[in-house]
Amino acid sequence: MPKIMKKKYIINIIAVAMVFLLLCLLFDTGLLGRKAAYFNGLVTIGMFYTIIVCSLNLLTGYMGEFSLGHAGFMSIGAYTSAIATTLISDHAELPNIVLYLLAIVIGGLAAAIVGVLVGIPALRLSGDYLCIVTVAVAEIVRVILSNFGIPAITGSATFGKSFAGIAKVSDYHYVFITMVICITVMYCYIRSRYGRALISIREDRIAAAASGINVTKTKVMTFTISAAFAGVAGAIYAHYITTLVPTYFNFSKSSEFLAIVILGGSGSMTGSIVAAPILSALPQLISYVFPEFASYRMLIYAIVLVVVMIFKPSGLFGGKEFSLPNLLLDRNYRKKKVSLDENKA
Amino acid sequence: MKQEDTPVLETKSLGIQFGGLKAVNDVNIEIYKGELIGLIGPNGAGKTTIFNLITGIYTPTTGSYLLCGERMNGLKTHQVVNAGIARTFQNIRLFKKMTVLDNVRVAFNKNMKANLLQSIFRTPYYWKEEADTTAKAMDLLKLFKLDGFADQYAENLPYGKQRLLEIARALATDMKLLLLDEPAAGMNPVETAELKESIKMLREKFGIPILLIEHDMSLVMSICERIYVLNFGEILASGTPDEIASNKDVIEAYLGKEDEGGEV
Predict the structure, then answer these.
(1) Please, what CATH class does the domain formed by A3-344 belong to?
(2) How many Å apart are CA A210 and CA B75, to the nearest integer?
(3) Measured between alpha carbons, how far is A220 from A223 in angstroms, rounded to an integer?
(4) What is the domain partition of chain B in residue ranges?
């Protein structure tokens, strides 16, 4: 590892740790008093939004394909992990952290499997056609969930079309660490030879193939990784909200994720990391601060989108990354490391 | 013609038909080690189609082609590249929003071994391989005097340099045969001279055989050892530059028949 990278890693780790400590300070010491639970919720939601938006950014920004079906992958992760943990906790008393880890692993794996199955046939298409297929996949999942319901598998949860009584194990400490790991993994993926291959496909598919890149394999792999992280986000959601309703994972949820990616800047991880928490919290904050405007909160979304698209069509960060180490060490050197910015969460 | 046992590239009555149109028909080309072969012909003769056939973008409907004696029909483009045929494109196809360095590094991908987990967890092997690849890529860029642009986006390079970068990228795939599709198109005389030097340098340094499509006759005539002339998808003539220059059929294909008052 080059020396400069070691320095950068240390700076990033310190920055992430500081954000983490700040959150602990806010929520664990009772500084916010009775409001702590409310803001805690906003932050947790913001964090799983960050994961799913970054995973969608992998497709939109780096592969150059739109997916309007990420809510579908999220719901697969959410339901699978919820069923699994409910079953497991019926038979054995496990500590929260173990249950949480099981949930995100199972959720991620389930979504990844569906991602491969969908990706292999669907990625023969590109552009609008692929987009339509992803919409279809998400809708199929949603319709299946809302019509069949969850069979009664255990006594501790109530069943039917909604799924309640899921163990509440998504503690924000865990979620924060999960988010940092997810983002780091995705970032390293993009900066590796796989990421270079991926971006070359976005730039010119034929030239990429003529440079020896296996286009189909790279695309399916990325699609799978993206789906897996959507599944992880779903698992976190399920074990935070504790009640799942199929209609939550509808088309407008998918398009909301896509809107956040575009707004933050497609092809910029930092953009997603900044935009996701803000935009996920914005509607909540509006209804919290101005209860009388609560019903207009979706309108704010549209206004924010339109304004950004007019003044900065490439999104807030426009394909660029913000790097704290480079800011500190070298002003000229672009690139490097995402992490920071959770302070917006 | 040099006498070697197996040609690097051999096409055996290669052809492709789009509907009723025989775009390429019964083409036999042989390229031996170290040769620089020109492929010329009027617009629409099927030159680029032959390139697309050889690189697996199209699948031949008749005939076959062999690389060092290995049958290559039906391979996908990236498999053809991995087998050792690299190409450039008529209308430049660079990865515009990637740096010049990354454009070349992408092409090294096929020889890199770090797997997904090694890449994500950035093991020492990953760092070593990245450093090696970067060094190799920089060496290639230096050959074409592009090392000063390494950090710039490829789209910001001047036209002539973009052409050279495309050749550098093709070289990075570590090929046995290089296909150049009109490298001098749109270049000014200075850039063409530069390109000529680069091609000469390539042959001296790497000794790889090159198949060159080119409309710039002075360039083709001055550097190619043998030339194939293509017209309406078929080989019209082949031979040394002198033979081609005096060949009646070739002149006719380019300028039309004398008594008909010539349509090009």
Answers:
(1) mainly alpha
(2) 12
(3) 5
(4) 9-95+160-255
The superfamily CATH assigns to domain B9-95+160-255 is P-loop containing nucleotide triphosphate hydrolases (3.40.50.300)
pLDDT, tens only, A223-271? 999 999 999 999 999 999 988 888 889 888 898 899 899 888 888 899 9
Query: Hey, how many other C-beta atoms are within 10 angstroms of the C-beta on B186?
Result: 12
Where residue A153 falls among pLDDT bands split at 50, 70, 90? Answer: low
CB contact under 8 A, B127 and A1: yes
- Give one DSSP letter per residue of B180-191, joined into a string: EESTTTT--HHH
Q: Residues B14-31: what's their mean pLDDT?
A: 90
Residue-level pLDDT at A337: 39
CB of A330 less than 8 A from some CB of B: no
Residues of B in Cβ contact (< 8 Å) with A211: 81, 106-107, 109, 169-170, 172-173
Nearest Cα of chain A lies from the Cα of B50 at a distance, in angstroms, of 15
If you measure CA to CA, which chain B residue comes closest to A217?
A: B78
B63's tokens: 């005939």
CB pairs under 8 A between A and B: 97
In terms of Cα–Cα distance, which of B201, B171, B55 is closest to B103? B171
Q: What is the CA radius of gyration of chain B?
A: 20
- A203 touching chain B per CB within 8 A: yes
